[in-house]
Amino acid sequence: MNIWKKLVFGVALALNLAAASHAASGGIAWDKAPGKTNDLASLQHGAKLFVNYCLNCHSAAFMRFNRLKDIGLTDEQVKDNLLFATEKVGDTMKAAIDPNQAKAWFGANPPDLTLIARSRAGAGGTGADYIYTLFRTYYRDPSKPTGWNNLAFPNIGMPHPLWELQGERRPVFETRMDHGHEVQAFAGRWEQVTPGTLTPLQYDQAVGDLVNYLQWMGEPAQNKRVGIGVWVMLFLLLFTLMAWRLNAAYWKDVK
Amino acid sequence: MAEFKEISPNAPLGAKVGNWFENRFPTVFAEYRKHMSEYYAPKNFNFWYFFGSLAMLVLVIQIVTGIFLVMHYKPDAAKAFESVEYIMRDVPGGWFIRYMHSTGASAFFVVVYLHMFRGLMYGSYRKPRELVWVFGCAIFLCLMAEAFMGYLLPWGQMSYWGAQVIVNLFAAVPFIGPDLALLIRGDYVVGDATLNRFFAFHVIAVPLVLIGLVVAHLLALHDVGSNNPDGIEIKKGPKGNRWSPDAPADGVPFHPYYSVHDIMGVGVFLMVFFAIVFFAPEMGGYFLEYNNFIPADPLVTPSHIAPVWYFTPFYSMLRATTDTMVNVLCAIIAAATVLGFLKCKCSMALKVAMAVVALVAIALLKTFDAKFWGVVVMGGAVILLFFLPWLDRSPARSIRYRPDWHKWLYAVFVVWFIVLMILGIMVPGPIFGTPSLSWLTNELVAMIGTLFYFGFFLLMPWWSQLGEPKPVPDRVTFKPH
Predict the structure, then answer these.
(1) Which position has the higher pLDDT, A179 or B274?
(2) Distance from CA of B85 to the nearest CA of A (A)
(3) Any CB–CB contact under 8 A between B282 and chain A?
(4) N or C: which end of chain B has fewer CB within 10 A?
(5) How far apart are CA A236 and CA B264, in angstroms?
(6) Residue A163: its H or E element
(7) Rounded mean pLDDT of A86-112?
(8) What ranges do the domains of chain A cover?
(9) Best residue of A240, A241, A242, A245 to probe chain B, by most B CBs closer than 10 Å
(10) pLDDT tier at A10 (50, 70, 90 boundaries)?
């Protein structure tokens, strides 16, 4: 067993993830996603990344292309930049991949991403935190069929879709004591093996944009919701004050 | 028929219109007086008395938002999840309607639990209000059915697997179980047929029963009159107040005094309600579970299936009923019988009958699967509430005039209820990660909580009579505003 396999084995043991099949059931602690769902430039960049890198295999079957007008894109811009095949601007985002082939290649059908930022939330943080961490913890693992593995989602079926941007990285492990046993654990640092087209800082920003987009797409009305909410609260405050005084006016006579 | 009343032609227009209608439809006017302007409620209601009217408000919110949801929702296994997302994205204001409905479901249980606890504290179920309480318990039962079946409709993973788990419980009933489960599902697994029948029950059958019960609850209440925090019968007190010479002196007309009072409660409640709707509709995964944003998949079982928070106290009791619990129950029955034999001053025949009943009970407990007894315990925990009026034998009606240790007992009861609620949300197994505490499992703590819950109610005829009650005043305690 070479040192690399030992390391991977150690991580799996340390995190008790020998056969994790579900992302939420294990992995490292999640980083905090930027969570800026009203930064239009970021959302537009995220939408572009999403359409270019995700939509080939994953659908967003409940999301219509023309809803992108909420993040400042006109129908013309959507048509010219984000529609590649015969889709209409009012269509939902459907993947081009054949589900049967996807299953043969990756072992599972790539899940729909419309609500991924909502469904992946858990005790570790929001779904956006999880995805933000996921895209920044890929590493090469020759023992896996796709050659890739992930610290946030051990034994992930999806190879690193943004590897061109990030390049190849290797997690740094250190020896720790766990219940009296020596284990190999992730030290929280990475080594760049081959460079990507983006610098690490640019890459984190790009992933942040993508995650912002996914978070927005999970609930496109979310910012409007908060905006209306503020006015509703102000109204109710006034209403309650008046109801309170009205009540006092009636009850002052009751002895 | 009421006398036809003539009105002066010089009377104001409003009075004339009123007179015209009262001559032709006097029932409405009589009922309005009976239930609103001439219904005399005790003047000493406190904070706890807001929750009855708030429960009515939430019922109205649920019905109105429900009607709008049904306009866009498709009760079809292939389309249900999609149609909910359609409501969330493409229907104008759809997200608002849907969040009001989902938040309303949890809000309903919050106000109903508080409303029931009010009744428990002030003895609002005591004679002559037994039926008010029984109707209320039936409402609670209906509400549970309504919430359970409504939860399947979004057709997410938790909807699907929650329904699967709960319907499978019915399969544990001896002899008829599997057929019963099949009847409920309409299929061998939860599927389209299940979704359709749950939809029918959720939008038509249960709401009709619910509304009928709410009417019965209110009519029965208005016949016997409201209780109050002092547990004093105002109808038995002095007569005559500012509004009527023969109304109870400590009563005020419901309208306008309690209508304006309740509107104030409505304002505060809506602030909390809409803060959740607009700023935290998922409520950290407790009102809308994260897993339910994944479409139902019969082939992928979620690693942890938990019902929504309002069911978890009872779900905990179900999970606590293991073989160990069955043995504990057998031991308790045996001990109670021995105690009865030694202490009871009754005839030998009765003692023998007691022993036979105990033996049969133990035999049944050991014969059937613990899973079935879990279902019995879970259902029994709700059914037991119906009998509360006959279990409480305390000389004082309100907690205010009972011995102080009763208050502590009630506090412990509340703590256990909340502990059971939390345990039901958590995964089974050891509660703490440390190996030295691995014996302290969820099931063990839930077992103690379950025994406390049942002990609290079943032993109430005994403990509620203990201790010296405090003197009850003649008139209600009221501080003018």
Answers:
(1) B274
(2) 6
(3) yes
(4) N
(5) 11
(6) helix A163-166
(7) 88
(8) 3-220, 222-255
(9) A240
(10) very low
Q: What is the ipTM of this complex?
A: 0.91
Q: Check CB contact under 8 Å for B260 and A254.
A: no
Residues in A closer than 8 angstroms to B274, CB to CB, are 229, 232-233, 236
Chain A's closest residue to B92, CA to CA, is A221
Report the candidate in A19, A6, A16 with the shortest Cα–Cα distance to residue A173: A6
In tens, the pLDDT along B83-116 reads 999 999 999 999 999 999 999 999 999 999 999 9
CB A142, CB A155: distance < 8 Å: no
Calpha distance B404→B412 (Å, rounded)? 13
CA distance B374 to chain A (A): 28
Average pLDDT rounded to a whole number, residues B144-166: 96
- Domain A3-220 bears CATH identifier 1.10.760.10: yes
- pLDDT tens-digit readout, B244-278: 999 999 999 999 999 999 999 999 999 999 999 99
Chain A from 170 to 209: CB within 8 A of any B CB: 179
How many Cβ atoms sit within 10 Å of the Cβ of residue B328? 16
Cβ-defined contact of A62 to B89 (cutoff 8 Å): yes
Across the range B378-386, mean pLDDT stands at: 97
| pLDDT the model gives residue B2 | 63
Q: Which among B89, B95, B291 has CB closest to A225?
A: B95
Q: Which of A252, A246, A33, A22 is nearest to A129 (CA)?
A: A33
* Residues, chain A: 255
What tens digit of pLDDT does each residue of B108-121 get?
A: 999 999 999 999 99
DSSP count for chain A of H helices, then E strands? 9, 6
Least CB-CB distance to A236: which of B82, B270, B293? B270
**Residue A3 pLDDT > 70, yes or no?**
no
The residue of chain A nearest to residue B42, with distances taken between CA atoms, is A254
